[in-house]
Amino acid sequence: MTTNFNFTRFTNLLKLDIAENWKNSLFGLLGIYAAFLIPMLGWLWNPSAYSFHQFCNNMLGVVFLVTSFFFIFYASRIMICMNSKEKRISYLLLPATMFEKFLSRFVIVTVFLSIQVFVALLALELSRYLLQPLFRLPAEFSQSMLAEMAEMMSRTGRAPVNMDGEYAYSKVLMQLLGFIFLLWNHSLFILGGSRWYKHPFLKTLGVIIAFNLIGGVIFARLVETGMMERFFQWMSENFEETPATTNGLMTAGCLIFASLTIFNWWLSYWLFTRSQVIRRKWLGV
């Protein structure tokens, strides 16, 4: 079999992945929908306490938290098709290249999950319209919740105006930095899922928590020794607080986190290419 990428072979593999895991996909869709629906019902129970704008703002927070959780949870399960010896034999023997197999799983936990979230949001909007007569909602609640939430998201990261009438930073850069940072977090769970096939979410989360604790201790030590104060003093002496400086720092942040994200993806693929039927443990894990 050729080792070159073949789109037809890839699409056939993707269809096979979706067909073999349709039950998990259905349960995942229902789980996302339920996680959206339950908080919404709680707020609709007492609509007089909320304006429509505040209701949509609350729902936007719910959608962000639920979507973020499901994305990292699914990312950690990228190699769920390899969590047993029988599954590894079956998947590794499929007539496709390792890149096509990895890309198929990557699409499942990113693009396909995005479609599930979108379908769940449409079902949520429809449910709200159907339940509206039961809750005797004010007339303003007849507006589209998704349209209002989309408008709120478009205003996210809007920069304040400084004394000179200039924006303090670029809104686009701020939104891009936030997106790339979330993408980097997602790539950590892709990496964890490519390393651990059993309980990948808990193991990856445990490692991240451990690194955060170690980083917190190091940061506290730097504060105690005065190094952080000297660093900020050096920054204030050498860089003016201008929109150009802020945009430059955000650009650097985008490049750093984008590089780390690409590295995590590459490392995940590298680990997958070295997959074996009988797995060798590293340090007992």
Automatic annotation (TrEMBL):
The chain crosses the membrane at residues 26-46, 58-81, 102-124, 172-192, 204-223, 249-272. The keyword Membrane applies. It comes from the Bacteria. Keywords: Membrane, Transmembrane, Transmembrane helix. The keyword Membrane applies. This is Putative ATP synthase F0, A subunit. It comes from Phocaeicola coprophilus DSM 18228 = JCM 13818.
